[in-house]
Write a structure and sequence with these properties.
The protein is of the alpha+beta class. The protein is about 35% helix and about 25% strand. Strands 17-14-16-15-19-20-18-21 form an 8-stranded antiparallel beta sheet, sandwiched between helices. Strands 7-8-12-10-11 form a 5-stranded antiparallel beta sheet. Strand 15 and strand 16 form a beta hairpin. Helix 7 packs antiparallel against helix 8. The chain is globular and about 60 Å long. The N terminus is likely disordered.
């Protein structure tokens, strides 16, 4: 699946189909030097510059009418350092290719999100994460990175080199420069046992602290209009490998999670009144199962049903109360929500604008299938999430601006001061960054 497509008349669209842009020109640099040259030319021509990955953001964070940089020639592993246990990879490498290449080398990232279509720089720059008690987002696993600045020079940063840039640029929103390479911490490949099982919503909320404490990776999906959830616990395992069988995998991951789910979405779009009944059936379709495999085969899953998503990080201790309020809102509102609500966690990290910066966090994500009216649901959910000092995912639908974000990010001013230093003329500016970071 090509996630982004330049459609007719050079129009670029994102994966969710809700953002379009018509850049003045597109460049596909094959080297860091070519990229630096393209940035200098754009500045001379008075054009803004944005790099775009696979278009998996639902915000217009990568949209531009200036120069759009496509990084798909900047791919592949540059080097593996087995002593330091790091891998340095070109910024345009899709996570899928990185995961497979690492597995062949007997290595793995510690944690990852559930989609692996994104490029490594797109995923990290927007704060993509999975779920983890002790292990954090993909960006938190970065040991060093290389970026090309507004003046076309190449800057490398790590905890030792340009540490103030490193603190911010791991989740840089494309505002500080264009990332060209990332060095990740890796470890010897390991096995995870996944336990997926339905569980009543009331029980998950009552036992949330234990479920979080007792599992390395805990997440669950709640089906609105029902009292049902599907839980997933991933923990390290001594083995043996017990992958999902091909037929069972096709039935559960393709037929139920993508095929039947897509059909249910179509019915729900045509007959919204049927959604609660469909939700009750959907919540019971997935039965309990357990399997053991290497990390990327457990953490990630295919997503073929296109949707729009809003996700907020709330303080972890506020998650149960927030979910109770969300459920009460859905029940009261007359809304018909056909997509499950996804709940994950992350430990505090030290990245300036990470959604988990300085606080243990829980993520609550609401979705609507592509093409259905989502504003009323998202607005009502956002009201609840912001009342708990929620921080919106940088790559997902939200309406927050710099004034709000400065209140929920203690180090917000540190980021904007660094941006003033690295990009004083706002070469990497676009409408989205103007809104979330201020002019």
């Amino acid at each position: 699946m090509s996630s982004t497509a330049s459609g007719r008349n050079g129009t670029w669209r994102n994966w969710g189909g809700n953002v379009a842009a018509r850049p003045a020109r597109e460049v596909t640099p094959a080297s860091v030097e070519e990229l630096a040259g393209a940035i200098r030319r754009a500045a001379e021509d008075g054009l803004k510059v944005k790099a775009v990955g696979s278009g998996h953001s639902f915000t217009s964070i990568a949209a531009t009418e200036g120069v759009m940089v496509r990084p798909h020639l900047l791919t592949g592993i540059r080097s593996i350092d087995r002593e330091a246990m790091t891998v340095t990879v070109e910024a345009g490498t899709p996570l899928k290719r990185l995961n497979m290449a690492l597995a062949r080398e007997g290595l793995s990232l510690t944690n990852m999100g559930d989609i692996m279509e994104q490029t490594v720089s797109g995923a990290t720059s927007t704060g993509t994460h999975g779920t983890g008690r002790d292990s954090a987002s993909i960006a938190a696993q970065i040991k060093a990175l290389e970026l090309v600045t507004a003046e076309g020079s190449v800057l490398t940063c790590s905890e030792k080199e340009n540490p103030e840039v490193f603190a911010a640029a791991r989740i840089g929103l494309g505002a500080l420069g264009i990332v060209t390479a990332i060095t990740f911490a890796v470890e010897p490949v390991f096995l995870l046992t996944a336990r997926e099982e339905p569980m009543p919503f009331a029980r998950v909320l009552a036992e949330f602290d234990e479920l979080w404490t007792e599992n390395e990776h805990f997440e669950f999906y709640w089906f609105p209009h029902t009292g049902s959830t599907n839980t997933k616990r991933n923990n390290r395992s001594a083995g043996p490998e017990k992958p999902v069988g091909q037929l069972a995998g096709w039935f559960e991951d393709e037929f139920l999670s993508n095929g039947v789910f897509q059909a249910a979405q179509w019915v729900g779009r045509a007959v919204p009144a049927a959604i609660p009944a469909i939700a009750r059936i959907s919540s019971k379709a997935l039965s309990a199962r357990s399997y053991t495999d290497i990390p990327y085969k457990v953490f990630t899953s295919p997503r073929r049903v296109r949707f729009l998503e809003m996700e907020y990080a709330v303080p972890r201790e506020a998650v149960v109360e927030t979910l109770r309020e969300l459920r009460a809102m859905v029940d009261r509102s007359g809304l018909r929500v056909s997509f499950p609500v996804e709940v994950r966690t992350a430990p505090a990290d030290d990245i300036t604008l990470s959604t988990a910066s300085g606080r243990d966090s829980a993520y609550i994500a609401v979705h609507m299938v592509k093409g259905t009216p989502y504003q009323r649901y998202f607005t009502a959910a956002e009201r609840i999430l912001t009342a708990h000092e929620g921080r919106p995912h940088w790559g997902k639908v939200h309406t927050r601006d710099a004034e709000y974000l400065a209140q929920v990010y203690p180090r917000f001013g540190e980021f904007t001061a660094l941006r003033d230093r690295l990009d004083p003329d706002r070469l990497f500016q676009n409408d989205y960054l103007r809104r979330v970071l201020g002019a």
